[in-house]
């Protein structure tokens, strides 16, 4: 998957320098709260390391206003269980 997206970094559910730790955080979050909303793990494009977990629907549209946004590369999507 080669997908770049925009997010407000303050909307991150968790952040980690390690991909596996970010994935584990997403799994723990889903276990506690259920998969009512899809999550995704993304890496900031301006940095060589680090991963953030976001709600997939918090994605900011490229054609909309972009205050406080950063570009991220989507590493993995964890869909909701609807």
Would you give an account of this structure?
By secondary structure, this protein is of the alpha+beta class. The chain has one domain (4-78). It has 1 helix and 5 strands; from the N terminus they run ββαβββ. The chain has one helix at 19-33; strands at residues 4-7, 14-16, 39-44, 51-55, 70-78. It has a 5-stranded antiparallel beta sheet, with helices on one face. A hairpin with a 6-residue loop joins β3 and β4. The longest helix has 15 residues, at 19-33. The two termini are 23 Å apart.
Key features of this structure:
82 residues, alpha+beta, five-stranded antiparallel β-sheet, 1 helix
> Helix and strand succession?
EEHEEE
Tally of helical runs: 1
Q: Biggest sheet, strands in spatial order? A: 1-5-3-4-2
Please report the distance between the alpha carbons of the first and last residues. 23 Å
Low-pLDDT runs of 5+ residues are none
Question: How much is the average pLDDT?
Answer: 88
| Helix coverage percent | 10-25%
User: Any idea how many domains?
Assistant: 1
Structural class: alpha+beta
Overall 3D shape: globular
Supply Rg.
12 Å
Question: How many distinct beta strands?
Answer: 5
Task: Report the sheet with the most strands, covering strand number, pairing sense and barrel closure.
Answer: 5 strands, antiparallel
Question: Which percent range describes the beta-strand content?
Answer: 25-35%
């Amino acid at each position: 998957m080669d997908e770049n997206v925009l997010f407000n970094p303050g909307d991150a559910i968790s952040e980690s320098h390690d991909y596996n730790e970010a994935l584990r955080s997403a799994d723990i979050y889903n276990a506690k709260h259920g998969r009512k909303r899809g999550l995704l793990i993304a890496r900031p494009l301006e940095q060589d390391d680090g991963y953030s977990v976001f709600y997939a629907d918090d994605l900011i549209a490229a054609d909309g206003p972009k205050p406080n946004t950063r570009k991220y590369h989507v590493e993995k999507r964890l869909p909701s269980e609807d």
